[in-house]
Design a protein that fits this description.
Mean pLDDT of chain B: 80
Strand content of chain B: under 5%
Largest sheet of chain A: none
Mean pLDDT of chain A: 75
Oligomer: heterodimer
Helix content of chain A: over 70%
Shape of chain A: elongated
Radius of gyration of chain B: 22 Å
Distance between the termini of chain A: 10 Å
Order of helices and strands of chain B: HHHHHHHHHHH
Number of helices of chain B: 11
Shape of chain B: globular
Distance between the termini of chain B: 44 Å
Number of helices of chain A: 12
Number of strands of chain B: 0
Number of strands of chain A: 0
Low-confidence stretches of chain A: none
Radius of gyration of chain A: 25 Å
Helix content of chain B: over 70%
Structural class of chain B: mainly alpha
Chain lengths: 326, 291
């Protein structure tokens, strides 16, 4: 399933640009000639040929397709048009650590925190504070990431001027593990992280609450309550353990949505991750960079879904992969 | 005479439901307000939304221009009505098409079983796992910001059908085992009759809830694309207003109303749609998820 998903995603990435009648080589060449450089026809054809070779546009469609696939698997996406001689890989790998660290921390924290809050809100659903939390989740969850990001920029950066508006670290800092650098890093990534955290949190609270409400009506929970078991034990062992499983499945399915949201959030905060790169690619119509980012995000998202699937048996003792469950 | 009575009862029931559920009431009234703004007001607009320089630029909200004007010389209030119209149409078109396609495929997979089921399930799973947004960005970017809004709707449909398909399939699988379906089969009903008479009434509330949710997702996706500058930039939509205001640095030049209006509208609209969605799905006790 994993391999097929990656393959299908990559195939879409390959064929979509070819459906649109814009030739990237002509774009480059016209950019060169637009600068006023004169080229006689022979040089023009020669240059065209070199460029075709460089971008892997030679040969029939099948040949191009297979070379694209085999290169994509080892993580080669060709050369960027916007930042001309540099490789797409280098650009992406420079941006990737930022995105991954931001995404991983916010997703993990919001998932854990949301589950705990959702559990409590669902179990003590008649208390006032639970209702407040639920209201908060309902109000926050449907807001798209970038809209919340814009609101945060407006409130914190523009009106209150508490947080910096761009970047992931202060100007002139080098990546190191000094305390100064880390504090600058946290300071600069706080708002994008907060945006992702809050929107995700809303969803996890809502779905965990729904699960808990259903579970606490179940007979085995009622029985445990009548038996006089401690609430702590009921909550952690009876309800939480059972509700956790659908939440893990939800996480694998939500990954692609979270990723998409993060991309836009990064763009709004000028965070130097994939989002920023994507914007650059879009604004300079750099098809190879776009293809690279898209292919890589397909691979990354499906890989993380695969990893969660593989650790699933740790949480659910009923599933063992030797028995060929799926 | 009889019809009048039925209508009267229907309205009464509807009012009763709305009164008993505050969330539904709030959601619906906000939605209806926006619908009126989007579908009736544009016909009274004194300006053409696509033209620039119609009114003095950068005026904060005042009596003459209730929501202020933009740096492009557009009256924000009238622009907003057109934007609402476009965004709502886009959302509803996407939601209608992808819900219909998804439901049909889900029914086929769940009812038909066998190879058909395997193939459809395979495609739904693949499309759910692929991150849609970068692909949408790539596709829209290839059109260099001139993609037609209906074309954009079609592309959005591509990524919104799998969710209803998956859900309908699993509902169908559990419904198929119920006794009343067997009864229907033994009474000589055909497949189409069974689906429309026996199954549709049971899953239609869910379909409606999913429709509302897809409207939300589609409007959100378009606005997201527009923020990056790859939507249909000439058409006024909620997203393109954000795009132009960011483009002209409205926030830093102090023209807060230009950015606050679309952002506020999206926020309120989405909360309203989501309120309708959850109150519907709780009413019919179906576990929901935004996808």
């Amino acid at each position: 399933m994993y391999i097929v998903t990656v393959w299908a995603g990559l195939t879409i990435c390959f064929f979509l640009p070819r459906l649109v009648p814009i030739d990237p080589i002509t774009v480059i060449l016209s950019r060169v000639t637009a600068m006023g450089a004169f080229m006689d026809p022979e040089t023009y054809t020669a240059m065209r040929k070199t460029l075709l070779q460089l971008f892997g546009l030679e040969g029939s469609l099948q040949e191009q397709y297979f070379s694209f696939l085999s290169k994509a698997i080892i993580g080669e996406f060709g050369i960027s048009i916007a930042v001309f001689p540099s490789k797409v890989n280098d650009l992406i790998y420079r941006a990737l650590p930022w995105t991954i660290s931001l995404l991983a921390t916010t997703t993990l924290f919001s998932w854990i925190f949301g589950n705990i809050v959702g559990l409590l809100v669902g179990y003590y659903r008649d208390k006032k504070i639970s209702k407040v939390f639920q209201l908060f989740a309902i109000a926050v969850y449907p807001i798209p990431y970038y809209v919340l990001a814009l609101i945060f920029v407006f409130v914190f950066c523009y009106t209150l001027r508490v947080f910096p508006l761009f970047g992931s670290k202060g100007i002139g800092f080098k990546v190191s593990f000094s305390l100064e650098f880390l504090s600058s890093l946290i300071f600069h990534s706080f708002l994008p992280a907060l945006t992702l955290f809050i929107v995700n949190l809303g969803w996890w609270i809502l779905s965990m609450r729904a699960l808990t409400v259903n579970l606490s009506e179940e007979d085995f929970v009622k029985f445990a309550e009548i038996k006089g078991m401690e609430k702590k034990v009921i909550l952690s062992r009876y309800i939480f353990r059972n509700a956790l499983l659908p939440q893990i499945t939800q996480l694998t399915m939500a990954l692609s949505t979270i990723f998409s949201g993060a991309v836009l959030t990064e763009f709004i905060f000028s965070y130097p991750g994939l989002g920023q790169l994507l914007y650059m690619a879009v604004s300079s119509s750099d098809i190879y960079l776009l293809m690279g980012i898209t292919s890589l995000s397909v691979i990354a998202v499906s890989t993380s879904a695969l990893i969660i699937d593989l650790i699933y048996p740790l949480f659910d003792p009923r599933i063992k992969y030797e028995e060929k469950h799926i | 005479m009889k019809r009048k009575k039925i209508t009267k009862r229907l309205v009464k029931n509807l009012l009763y439901v709305l009164k008993s559920d505050t969330r539904l009431l709030i959601g619906t009234s906000v939605l209806v307000t926006f619908m009126i703004l989007g579908f009736i007001f544009p016909y009274f607009s004194p300006y053409d939304p696509k033209r620039w320089g119609q009114v003095p630029r950068d005026i904060p909200p005042c009596l003459k221009y209730p929501l202020g004007t933009t740096s492009l010389g557009q009256d924000l209030f009238w622009l907003l009505t057109f934007a609402l119209q476009n965004s709502l149409i886009l959302g509803m078109v996407v939601a209608a098409i992808s819900t219909i396609v998804g439901v049909i495929l889900g029914l086929l997979a769940g009812y038909g079983g066998g190879y058909l089921d395997t193939i459809i399930t395979f495609f739904t799973d693949v499309f759910i796992a692929i991150p849609a947004f970068p692909i949408l960005v790539m596709l829209a970017a290839l059109f260099l910001g001139r993609i037609h809004i209906l074309m954009l709707a079609m592309v959005l449909c591509l990524f919104n059908w799998p969710w209803p398909a998956k859900q309908v399939r699993s509902m169908m699988l559990s419904l198929k085992e119920r006794a009343f379906i067997d009864t229907a089969i033994f009474s000589g009903f055909g497949m189409i009759e069974i689906i429309f008479r026996e199954i549709m009434p049971l899953i239609s509330p869910w379909i409606f809830a999913n429709f509302i949710n897809t409207v939300l997702v589609a409007i959100g996706a378009e606005a997201g694309l527009a923020t990056l500058g790859v939507s249909s930039l000439e058409e006024p939509t909620l997203g393109t207003i954000i795009y132009w205001s960011l483009r002209y640095q409205a926030m830093f030049r102090g023209y807060w109303w230009w950015i606050a209006v679309p952002v506020g509208t999206i926020t309120v609209l989405f909360i309203a749609l989501f309120l309708i969605y959850i109150s519907l799905s709780e009413r019919f006790s179906i576990g929901g998820s935004k996808k």
